[in-house]
Design goal:
By secondary structure, the chain is mainly alpha-helical. It has 30 helices and 11 strands. It comes from Cyprinus carpio.
């Protein structure tokens, strides 16, 4: 008896091993939602097994330690890889942007700034000009002044822009269609449990990295910050394949992707803390405390890597890092709130206009010609951008210019005050003691103001039509540029108002003669935060990112006031952020946690089958053959099937996934001897009595979920929606007194919510 018992135990262990090694079991098909509960349960079982084995041997203990350490090692690798790629993208984009205007004779790989660094022949007034840097007109026709110089440089600027944009869209179309756009709406959907195969693959990473440089360099109204989140998530997904516990568990992989989102923002803005908060506030669906620590570590490593590369040569992680020294006055909260209102209005307008344009692209023949669309938009952008100084420069350089607080070394038109000598602000402080008239606007500042006003209109229009094209396109920088322009305009107006009326009671207390009481660059920064907040609806993470950009604690209150005002105004005009609007436009199955369900419907109103429909397709725990099950699979497209006792007694036993069922049947036909079409399928624990001549049974109890989530027909849909959100369910079975009546899937809930909101329920496209 003992011998037989031992043989049985060994056989049972081998069968368990066989079940565990069946390839494909527990995986998901494309455009399906993962089962969060099952994935977390699998991970707990794995942890429990490792912990038990670690007490038995030293080797098992070492394996346990390495398993615990593997998560931190993965974060280290993600930070290093993402930081290195971001540094390369920054350097390449800076060089190629300058390439549109000219080339360095000392070495074509130098950008304009680096080319003139070593020159001893630059002057203070024209320190961006040096003999080593030649414009295309000087190289091609030898013209250094006059209309010929302007025309040739204009022509070359447009040609380079068209070439970069054309290459970007062609590479995306040919090699990686998923590399277009921002990527954040899709990453939000993936983090909620949706499967989009190839979206975070190696080809997407390679093409997105290359085309992001090309798209940014083309001068289109887009940024690289959003796509950098996609790039970091691609790095994380690829590196996950080298770690078994992340490769085999979709829920664990999503914890890593949440950390990678933080890394993307960290390298985009040089803001590791802001990146962690961005991941928590904006993109993550499930964010445990352990992920918070690991996100912080990965963001720190990425920022350190980027700092080591030093892409801008100024020891800063971003091009528009700025420091302000003038304190703000309490009365300035009024214009800061006005900027918040402008940001909210801009955000609401942009979302509606961009979604309308994208819907037009989707529903008309415009969507059939993505290459032509990109080329035409690039041509118009380049033609209109070149004549205006503030649209000709890259968006990052524009923001840097607008954030800048006029100092001794500034020769910008924005710093041309009547008290300055030579059109620069070199004598601002020297003449400040003579009175506030030293800050009166000069002719250069007036020119800059109308150019900025024109640039504001162009930026608004081009950002609306550019976001969503078939090239990598981020939204952070264009939105910040719009806000920075508006903020700088308001800041200069406030400054001139204070100077011309400094004797008034409202200004007398804080605009004393000999002091700079208004900082226009601060207004630009607050405006940038307000517009970005209005479009994305970020609040806490936005304020922290802007704080890390400026390094000044005293400006947190203006930033908070503007960010909250912009969110309130934008929410009053529409509840969705731009990312949620694009998720809904694309029909992704995403249950937004911020959207409340207020309707008094019941589970019976949403479940399938509806009245008049055929009964729900089920499997019985015994009595069905391989042929019958395979026919049911072929005739339906459902992702899984409830298992009941019998057709006559439909009491629920469990739930089995379609993919697991298909793989198990194929495996049984291939490896189990004697399995034919008439072989019975068993989900029972004990074998029923069978005829000796009957073919061997296929036992599938190991793939059966014995504890599926169930609700009754009278459960309020408000509770059902809450269960789906908080547990990440993909389906829920509806029962009454133990009898199966129907099923509710995530797609059914999304269709019901769309119907209740008077939207087209068929807009939910994916399974």
């Amino acid at each position: 008896i003992d011998f037989a018992h031992n043989i049985y135990s060994i056989t049972y262990m081998l069968m368990d091993l066989l079940d565990d090694t069946v390839p494909g079991i527990g995986t998901y098909e494309d455009f399906n939602t993962i089962d969060w509960v099952r994935e977390k349960s699998k991970d707990r079982d794995r942890h429990r097994e490792i912990a038990n084995k670690s007490k038995q041997s030293t080797v098992a203990l070492l394996f346990s330690i390495s398993d615990a350490f593997s998560g931190w090692l993965l974060m280290l690798l993600i930070g290093l890889m993402s930081g290195a790629l971001a540094g390369g993208i920054d350097i390449a984009a800076h060089w190629m942007t300058d390439l549109k205007e000219g080339v360095c004779l000392n070495g074509f790989w130098f950008n304009h700034e680096h080319c003139c660094w070593a020159s001893n022949e630059t002057t203070f007034q024209e320190r961006d000009k040096c003999p080593q840097w030649k414009s295309w007109a000087e190289l091609m026709v030898g013209v250094s002044e006059g209309p010929g110089l302007y025309v040739v440089n204009y022509f070359m600027y447009v040609c380079w822009a068209l070439l970069f944009a054309f290459l970007a869209v062609i590479l995306v179309r040919a090699f990686a269609p998923y590399a277009c756009g921002s990527g954040i709406p899709e990453i939000k959907t993936i983090l909620s449990g949706f499967i989009i195969r190839g979206y975070l693959g190696k080809w997407t990473l390679i093409i997105k990295t290359i085309t992001l440089v090309l798209a940014v360099s083309s001068g289109l109204s887009l940024g690289k910050e959003g796509p950098l989140v996609h790039v970091a998530c691609c790095c994380a997904n690829i590196l996950c394949h080298f770690f078994t516990k992340y490769r085999r568990n979709e829920a664990k992989k999503r914890e890593v992707l949440s950390a990678a989102s933080a890394v993307g923002v960290s390298v985009a803005f040089g803001a590791p803390i802001g990146g962690v908060l961005f991941s928590l506030e904006e993109v993550s669906y499930y964010f445990p405390l352990k992920t918070l620590w690991r996100s912080f570590f990965a963001a720190l490593v990425a920022a350190f890597t980027l700092r080591s590369i030093n892409p801008f040569g100024n020891s800063r992680l971003v091009l528009f890092y700025v420091e302000f020294h003038t304190p703000w006055h309490l009365l300035e909260l009024i214009p800061f709130v006005l900027l918040g209102i402008f940001g909210g209005l801009w955000g609401a307008f942009f979302i509606r206009a961009n979604i309308a344009w994208c819907r037009l692209r989707k529903n008309t023949s415009l969507g059939h010609y993505p290459v032509l669309e990109v080329v035409v938009v690039t041509l118009l952008t380049a033609l209109l951008a070149f004549p205006i100084e503030y649209t000709k420069m890259s968006s990052s350089e524009l923001i840097s210019e607008l954030f800048n607080d006029c100092g001794l070394l500034d020769s910008s038109k924005l710093c041309d005050y009547s008290g300055n000598s030579g059109g620069t602000s070199g004598s601002v402080n020297a003449t400040a003691a003579n009175g506030l008239g030293a800050r009166l606007a000069g002719p250069g500042l007036y020119t800059a103001m109308w150019q900025l006003a024109l640039a504001l209109v162009l930026k608004m229009v081009f950002t609306v039509v550019t976001f969503g094209m078939k090239v990598p396109s981020g939204l952070f920088i264009p939105s910040m540029a719009v806000g920075a322009i508006a903020g700088r305009l308001l800041g200069v107006c406030m400054e001139q108002l204070a100077i011309r009326h400094h004797e008034r009671d409202i200004f007398r207390g804080w605009c004393s003669p000999g002091a700079d009481c208004i900082t226009p660059g601060l207004y630009a920064m607050v405006g940038a935060a307000a517009c970005l907040g209005g479009v994305t609806r970020m609040t806490v993470s936005l304020v922290v990112i802007m704080f890390e950009l400026t390094g000044g604690l005293e400006y947190i209150v203006p930033l908070m006031a503007a960010a909250m005002t912009s969110k309130w105004v934008a929410d009053a005009l529409g509840r969705e952020s731009i990312y949620e609007a694009h998720i809904r436009l694309n029909g992704y199955p995403f249950l937004e946690a911020k959207e409340e369900f207020r309707h008094k419907t019941l589970a019976t109103d949403v479940m399938r089958p509806r009245r008049g429909d055929p009964p729900v397709s089920v499997l019985t725990e015994s009595g069905m053959t391989v042929e019958e099950v395979e026919r049911l699979i072929a005739d339906t497209t459902y992702s899984g099937f409830p298992v009941v006792i019998s057709q006559q007694s439909p009491r629920l036993v469990g739930f089995v996934l379609r993919r697991d069922l298909v793989i198990s049947l194929e495996n049984a036909r291939r490896h189990q001897e004697g399995v034919v079409s008439m072989s019975p399928i068993l989900f029972t624990e004990c074998d029923p009595p069978m005829s000796p001549s009957a073919p061997p049974a296929v036992k599938l109890r190991s793939i059966l979920d014995l504890s599926p989530f169930t609700v009754t027909v009278h459960t309020a849909m408000e509770i059902v929606v809450d269960i789906f959100r908080k547990l990440g369910l993909r389906q829920c079975l509806v029962i009454q007194n133990g009898r199966l009546l129907g099923i509710i899937t995530k797609k059914d809930i999304l269709k019901h919510m769309a119907q209740m909101a008077n939207r087209d329920p068929d807009s939910i496209l994916f399974n």
